[in-house]
Design goal:
Blueprint lengths: L1 H7 L7 H4 L12 H13 L5 E4 L6 H13 L7 E5 L6 H13 L9 E6 L6 H13 L4 E7 L7 H4 L3 E4 L5 H14 L3 E2 L1 H11 L3 H14 L2 E2 L1 H7 L5 H13 L2 H15 L3 H12 L7 H19 L4 H16 L1
Parallel strand pairs: 1-4, 1-5, 2-3, 3-4, 6-7
Helix pairs in contact: 3-4, 5-6, 8-9, 8-10, 9-10, 9-11, 12-13, 12-14, 14-15, 15-16
The structure holds adenosine-5'-diphosphate and magnesium ion (MG).
The site of magnesium ion (MG) has 4 residues, from helix 4.
Length: about 325
């Protein structure tokens, strides 16, 4: 019995973000300028040191893998050393890994090996200075691909040694397209407005979109908009609008109750709530332009206080109280 039951369970171990990761540079979605330049490297089978900068889930790691694969073929892994700067507390460990790796010749007659250093902006500027010397020392045999969220956190001498690539958040339409594509390959049934919801919560981050899709697909056979919002710690736009409307029409206590229901139902922390509210604020057409401007400033203030450790309940109550006084 047990054995049979196990055969019926669909293996959930494989992550769709990995399974559907583009394998060559040309399969990368969006990032048109980036992809164009990388394709030239693929064709010439060589490239300089590279710096990939941009927000999470936009294809930086994917591009590093795909490019290496394009240049070295199926055996690319033997010519690739992957490291995460935030795991390597001491630069010494990066140095010794690079040294070890660079000692042997590149596999399959390739001219160089590739070192991919993720989250390079986690290194202090002193450590980056030492990294720069390592890059110079091994430049003959190794190319570095550095990835970071902000290129401004990378010291100038490293930036000037790299070709810099800026990755943008994917557009709503690009995220939507990839969700629909993966959903159809995985044979999941999904409503059109659920695809919209996934693209909405993703905010240009494809990792987030595909993870939320897989989580929803594991729970229900047919994915609806409600399911997406309930499983992704995101309140749907209309719920946030209803809170603002309650502030305007019903006053403090009803609005405060609504906020509490929202936090409970969607499992939001105070800062999640403020950020989601901010995103929906400008589309609330029942608020005047000047009210929106004042509320923006107010939300920035409360967000800051929360991040700095202000008590959540009192900060959110203060927010509601202020909003009520602004909009009534
Ligand atoms: N531009 C893109 N095109 C196609 N898939 C993408 C793209 N960006 C991200 N993804 C998907 O999201 C996952 C995470 O992307 P990744 O490249 O690791 O992001 P990061 O920019 O944080 O390094 C990938 O495995 C892939 O499935
Ligand atoms: Mg990455």
């Amino acid at each position: 019995m047990f054995k049979d039951a196990r055969l019926l369970v669909k293996p959930m171990s494989e992550l769709w973000v990995e399974k559907h990761r583009p394998q060559t540079v040309t399969q990368i979605r969006g990032q048109l300028g980036v992809v164009d330049r990388l394709r030239t490297y693929s064709e010439k089978r060589t490239f300089p040191h590279l710096l990939f900068a941009g927000p999470p889930g936009t294809g930086k790691t994917t591009a590093a893998m795909a490019l290496t694969k394009d240049v070295f073929g199926a055996d690319y892994r033997s010519n690739l050393l992957e490291m995460n700067a935030s795991d390597e507390r001491k630069l010494e460990s990066i140095r010794s890994k690079v040294k070890q790796f660079a000692r042997t010749a590149a596999f399959g007659g390739a001219k160089f090996k590739v070192i991919f250093l993720d989250e390079a902006d986690a290194l202090t500027s002193d450590a980056q200075g030492a990294l720069r010397r390592i890059m110079e020392q091994y430049a003959e045999t190794c190319r570095f691909i550095l990835s970071c969220n902000y290129s401004s956190k990378i010291i100038e001498p490293i930036q000037s040694r790299c070709a810099v690539f800026r990755f943008r958040p994917l557009t709503f339409a690009q995220v939507r397209e990839q969700i629909a594509n993966v959903a159809s390959q995985e044979e999941v049934e999904i409503d059109e407005d659920a695809i919209d919801a996934l693209a909405n919560i993703a905010n240009g981050d494809l990792r987030k979109a595909l993870t939320a899709l897989q989580v929803s697909a594991a729970l229900e056979k047919k994915i609806s908009r409600d399911l997406v919002y309930e499983t992704s710690a995101t309140a749907p736009p209309e719920a946030l609008h209803q809170y603002l409307l309650a502030c305007k029409q019903d006053g403090f206590h009803p609005a405060r109750r609504r906020l509490q229901e929202l936090l409970d139902k969607f499992g939001l922390a105070g800062t999640d709530f403020i950020n989601q509210l901010h995103k929906e604020l400008y589309s609330a057409d029942f608020l005047s332009e000047s009210a929106k401007l004042s509320l923006t400033e107010l939300m920035a203030e409360v967000d800051y206080r929360l991040v700095e450790g202000g008590g959540e309940q009192i900060q959110l109550d203060a927010l509601t109280a202020k909003i009520v006084s602004f909009v009534e």
